[in-house]
Specification:
With 296 residues, this protein is mostly helical. The protein is built from 14 helices and no strands. The protein has one domain. The longest helix is centred in the middle third of the chain and has 26 residues. The radius of gyration is 19 Å and the shape is globular.
Length: 296
């Protein structure tokens, strides 16, 4: 697993993070636009860029921005080209083996998505999805540099601390300016329930159109599958990698971005069915979060 930190910083400087920031915003725009229209695309990009951790991550890290961009590229490939397993399998292999260890579950997510396609030849597509990972590991074994020097994989525990760290980062993105523990807990819990309800209702609403919008309905299972893969990678790193640190912003940001994507698609997907008071309340809440996020 070859990291980008340090080795690339001297040569690339701010170019790689800046390129990845633009790529992430562009891919988010295209996915949401194709799923629910231009308003959804613009809304998704606005939420993404205004996340309290988006700009700091792109200023301080060389691994977080590529992981986020590759994750969103995988969403686009899996949604709009579900049979092109070689493409999203290659992206998953690059993220998991060259960028960040928490992305190690992405190749498995690519294989699972290829297997989920009820079409002829899906097992061949599963093989194609896993082939890039196998090739990279083989070449790394033959040429050297397969794993970080000095890292020993063994059971180390500490999953509770990892979950707490990840939850704190996610909470910072949801309620960036609230410091009181009790109020912070209530706000984050309420927002989490509201977001979950909006996503579920939006998924059901978008699932009703005709078959030609099948790619729209793939956004939800694809985002969920990749979120599970990233969460599994985070948990596996915490449990198994000796000397690994607790999850940081760059490791958790793809999970937040996937949530932003499905939330934007869900809101715009059934916006016309909301009562006026619901639309007004939603606008007030979004504007309030945006100003709090920008201030943070």
């Amino acid at each position: 697993m070859v990291g980008l930190e340090g080795t690339a910083s001297a040569n690339l400087g701010p170019l790689l993070p800046a390129f990845c920031a633009g790529l992430s915003a562009a891919v988010m725009l295209l996915i949401a636009d194709a799923a629910a229209g231009a308003v959804a695309g613009a809304f998704a990009v606005l939420l993404l860029v205004c996340l309290p951790g988006f700009v700091p991550m792109h200023l301080d890290s060389l691994t977080g921005p590529p992981l986020l961009a590759i994750t969103l590229l995988m969403v686009g490939a899996m949604v709009h080209a579900p049979r092109f397993s070689l493409a999203y399998g290659t992206l998953g292999a690059i993220a998991g083996l060259f960028v960040a260890p928490e992305g190690i579950g992405l190749p498995l997510a690519a294989a699972a998505w290829a297997l989920a396609q009820r079409v002829r030849g899906r097992w061949q597509r599963v093989v194609l999805a896993l082939a890039p990972t196998a090739i990279i590991l083989l070449l790394a074994h033959l040429l050297g540099g397969a794993w970080p020097h000095g890292v020993v994989y063994q059971w180390r525990g500490g999953l509770d601390r990892g979950l707490r760290a990840a939850g704190t980062i996610i909470g910072n993105q949801m309620a960036p300016t609230i410091a009181s523990p009790a109020l912070r807990f209530l706000v984050i819990a309420d927002l989490a329930l509201i977001i979950l309800a909006v996503i579920v209702v939006g998924w059901r609403r978008i699932g009703q159109p005709a078959a030609e919008t099948a790619s729209v309905r793939r956004v939800y299972p694809v985002a969920g599958l990749l979120a599970m893969a990233l969460a599994t990678g985070l948990a596996g790193r915490t449990l198994l990698v000796q000397g690994s640190s607790e999850p940081d912003l760059q490791a958790v940001m793809p999970l937040v971005a996937l949530t932003v994507l499905v939330l934007a698609v869900s809101i715009t997907g059934f916006w016309h069915y909301w009562p006026r008071w619901g639309k007004a309340l939603a606008v007030v809440l979004v504007l309030g979060w945006l100003q709090a996020a920008v201030r943070a």
